[in-house]
Design goal:
Strand order of the largest sheet: 5-4-7-8-9
Number of helices: 2
Strand content: 15-25%
CATH superfamily: minor pseudopilin epsh domain
Mean pLDDT: 76
Number of strands: 9
Largest sheet: 5 strands, antiparallel
Distance between the termini: 93 Å
Low-confidence stretches: 123-147
Number of domains: 1
Order of helices and strands: HHEEEEEEEEE
CATH topology: minor pseudopilin epsh fold
CATH architecture: 3-Layer(bab) Sandwich
Structural class: alpha+beta
Length: 201
């Protein structure tokens, strides 16, 4: 037979089976915080370099996309397009030649990321880096009339209406991150377009 439990018996059973509330002591919390601080201090430089590398890669891809847009617009609109680079103001952009259109509603300009620097390299592979402010010659070929640019004093890549790239255009644009890593948006071997490649040391 089952014996009936009184209220007192139940209370004693519950009190006996109850466990104290679980929690962290102050020392345990301090130890956890110390471990987290050490872990963050070790991984922070690696994470920082990772994000800086992503910034450089993103900027190089944006410049490359702008070269393709310029070439596409030159063909579709039948106008020379200039991708200009202002190293002093850390800006670059794309616009139609101003001798054909006084204002270009499709012109775009971008601010270079503060952690990235850009340099233009002359057509001659052995020539030093240049950020010359002297305007380049305007004669492109025997079949093309001389043209002008709103940014004539700046280095610029010129896309001609037939889709070709002017021989006076820089061979490459070198983008350098804060950590010294570089990427190049360089003229391909076919000289028909630009491509991204790692900078040669």
């Amino acid at each position: 037979m089952r014996e009936k439990m009184t209220k007192g018996d139940r209370k004693r059973t519950l009190d006996f089976g109850a466990s104290p509330k679980a929690g962290f002591t102050l020392i345990e919390l301090i130890l956890v915080m110390a471990i987290l601080t050490i872990a963050v201090s070790i991984t922070a430089p690696a994470l920082s370099n990772f994000f800086h590398g992503r910034t450089l890669d993103s900027e190089a891809r944006r410049v490359l996309a702008l070269t393709r847009q310029g070439q596409s617009r030159a063909i579709s609109e039948g106008l020379p397009m200039d991708l200009w680079v202002d190293t002093a103001q850390a800006q670059y952009g794309l616009e139609a030649d101003s001798s054909f259109e006084e204002t270009d509603p499709k012109s775009v300009s971008f601010d270079l990321d503060k952690d990235v620097q850009v340099q233009t390299v002359n057509v001659d592979p052995n020539a030093p880096l240049t950020t010359s402010t002297e305007p380049p010659a305007t004669v492109e070929s025997s079949s093309t009339a001389p043209t002008t640019s709103r940014h004539a004093s700046l280095p610029r890549i010129r896309f001609l209406p037939d889709g070709s790239i002017s021989e006076l255009s820089p061979q490459l644009l070198r983008l350098t991150g804060r950590d010294g890593t570089s990427l190049e948006v360089a003229l391909g071997r076919s000289r028909l377009n630009y491509e991204i490649r790692a900078a040669k040391n």
